[in-house]
Amino acid sequence: MKPLSTVLVVSFAGLVNAAPRSESSTVRHQVSQLRNEGYDFIVAGGGTSGLTVADRLSEAFPEKMVLVVEYGDVEYAPGTFDPPLTEWGGRRISARSWTIISQPVLDFKNKTALVLAGQVVGGSSAVNGMFFDRPARQDHDAWANAVDDAGDHGGEKWDWNGIYPFFKKSVSFTPPSAAAAQQHGFTWDASVYGSTTPIYSSFPPFLWADHHIVRNAWKDLGAPALRECAGGEKSGLCWIPISQHPVTARRSHSGVGHYLAVNTTRTNYDLLVKHQVTRVIWPKGPTSGPPVVEVRSLADGTIFNVTAKEEVIISAGVFNTPAILQRSGLGKASILSAAGINTVVDLPGVGSNLQDHSGAAVAWNYTKPGNWTPVPSQMADAAFLADAVAGFNETPARGPYTLGMSNSAIFIAHLDITTREKTDDLVQKIERSIKDGTAISTLPADYRDDPDLMAGYEYQLKIITKLLGDSKTPSLESAFASGNSVRAINLHPVSRGTVRLNTTHPLELPIVDYRTGSNPVDFDVYVDHVRYLRRMITTPAMQRYGAVEAAPGPAVQGYAELVEYVKDVITLSFMHPCCTASMLPKNKGGVVGTDLKVYGTKGLRIVDMSILPFLPSSHLSALAYAVGEKAADAIIREWRR
Ligand SMILES: Cc1cc2nc3c(=O)[nH]c(=O)nc-3n(C[C@H](O)[C@H](O)[C@H](O)COP(=O)(O)OP(=O)(O)OC[C@H]3O[C@@H](n4cnc5c(N)ncnc54)[C@H](O)[C@@H]3O)c2cc1C
Ligand SMILES: *[C@@H]1O[C@H](CO)[C@@H](O)[C@H](O)[C@H]1NC(C)=O
Ligand SMILES: *[C@@H]1O[C@H](CO)[C@@H](O)[C@H](O)[C@H]1NC(C)=O
Ligand SMILES: *[C@@H]1O[C@H](CO)[C@@H](O)[C@H](O)[C@H]1NC(C)=O
Ligand SMILES: *[C@@H]1O[C@H](CO)[C@@H](O)[C@H](O)[C@H]1NC(C)=O
Ligand SMILES: *[C@@H]1O[C@H](CO)[C@@H](O)[C@H](O)[C@H]1NC(C)=O
């Protein structure tokens, strides 16, 4: 590793022009604008979870100073699908994001995954697809089981009952208008949501006309239409709210709800933007108290130390959190020494256990199309488009731009996708692979000299087989809004990847190796999912319009052919990476305990999607807020004692 000290080094202590304590919170662009007296809590990363924690800590402790250090800047963050149409989708998002191209994925013909991560105040909540669902109860109960089995690791409960109050607290839900509910058939249960936090969850007033065809097709296939899917039970056909303001339909994200909403009144909450947390340093050893936070100015490369009196909280996201930890000497000793970094705590779990949602699509053509309107192709019509833009700027907003990505999905258990017998076969296949050692052989080479990582993987597999065999835990998600295809999401993948420092450029993005499909069981699941999705095309709801399968196409039937198809059309990342600093027992490759404290250290916690042990049956933003809320609650209780 290039020594970090080759850049100009200036100590923070004794800087002139520092702001006096009484000054209200404001965005700071230079370390010289930080407060003379220092900070009690420092949060590294002003994203979805990080700003939630900072807001709650500064609210709970008016006398303590909270600093957030954020790589990006404060920006108005438009919704992914907001007008103008010329910026639809990717381009505008990537301007505020890290663009990560993964290592080639061997089992997918060396394709690379494209994955983004927010690089702006608000983090990924400011660039994401705004689909705002929650995990299933069973995901959380399994997570709690994963940490509780081996004894106490901090005493916090992460089962559904333990986290549910924080899901409720983290958002304000507004029911749709009576007219929209009537027109679209929306259902909900407002009692599973909160009403005080300005992170908004709401329904769009608009749906595309062909939406109901796919919805009815899933009903034909037997998916139960659920009234509400955010209350723990989500096996069925779900209406999913969107993270947007109920009236303006503007994106609701943590930069707005957990910073701008409070920065005019909160005098103890500072945000330093355009600065990178490079690493944390314990001058007297990792158990001596909160570490010093080393920060680099993006403007001129200057390096500073900022000191926290109570705690440092790392919330830099699934790729950058393990990079900060590895630069700090927290990681697998052999990997650190290869990068020229002294090991401070040997924690092989750092940057291990990488997972993401992936899956393949099926497509069809209608041979008897109805006269549906509105449909997305009408956006090519100048008058339709002009009305869509005008509608979005009305109060309340109306029209296509209020829809975001989608607000509907099915979540189906594996035994409803196949049969009990086939599901049991799959479960037994995983169990055999644990017994005969073939499961371990699918792991990255640098796992296989580490007993804890190997034990942790088998431990996870045992828990995931329970989820796979459970009638209430979804194995497949498929979201839909309009059009001639639907995509499968493999909700509980069993392949594992890594995030490792780029040894020649340690301050840049780390190297992301997904290793998707390295455990062949995932291919069985992808194939089962494609077979299930294609059955949807044959339902009466679809046949009414003469739907014919266009992909994979009727000729593609056998397992080997379907595997080949999946390899060709896979989406390798639905942008839900997780688990690179997992909450697991230390002897199972864990990095944090249930209190989110990093094993072997004092004064350091991790609060972001890195801490998940495995993926849940949901997208991650609602969970990132709930984890932030629950973490803040634990920290506040501890410092009140
Ligand atoms: C394009 C995209 C689409 C998505 N779609 C959806 C969706 O529709 N629904 C859904 O629920 N989820 C979605 N997700 C996932 C979800 O948004 C994320 O999982 C979640 O927001 C992650 O929260 P986090 O707190 O872990 O990290 P983030 O919110 O990413 O926050 C990390 C923050 O740390 C900052 N940072 C990083 N490194 C440093 C450093 N060294 N120093 C200082 N600051 C640093 C970053 O700039 C960022 O602000 C999507 C994600 C993306 C990227
Ligand atoms: C930051 O603190 C560490 C540990 O005390 C020290 O080695 C380093 O020189 C300091 N850096 C600066 C910029 O003061
Ligand atoms: C709050 O943040 C916004 C955005 O950076 C800034 O314009 C405003 O001045 C801040 N308010 C206060 C009181 O500092
Ligand atoms: C993928 O890359 C590996 C390593 O470079 C190579 O051995 C393999 O042949 C490649 N596979 C394909 C399908 O190109
Ligand atoms: C490390 O980063 C540099 C600069 O971005 C890049 O050129 C190089 O390919 C990266 N290394 C690896 C192994 O990806
Ligand atoms: C479906 O439509 C596409 C585009 O018009 C066409 O290329 C394809 O051949 C059609 N497939 C079938 C099975 O009708």
Automatic annotation (TrEMBL):
Signal peptide: 1-18
Entry keyword set: FAD, Flavoprotein, Signal
GO process annotations (BP): secondary metabolite biosynthetic process
Family, similarity comment: Belongs to the GMC oxidoreductase family.
Domain Glucose-methanol-choline oxidoreductase C-terminal: 493-628
One of the record's GO molecular function terms: flavin adenine dinucleotide binding
Superkingdom of origin: Eukaryota
Cofactors named for this entry: FAD
Binding, FAD: 48-49, 120, 277
Pfam family, one: GMC_oxred_N
Residue positions of the active site: 576, 619
InterPro entries xrefs: FAD/NAD-bd_sf, GMC_OxRdtase, GMC_OxRdtase_N, GMC_OxRtase_C
Glucose-methanol-choline oxidoreductase N-terminal domain span: 39-357
KW Cell membrane (keyword) present: no
Protein name stated in the entry: Alcohol oxidase
Keyword Signal: yes
Organism expressing this protein natively: Schizothecium vesticola
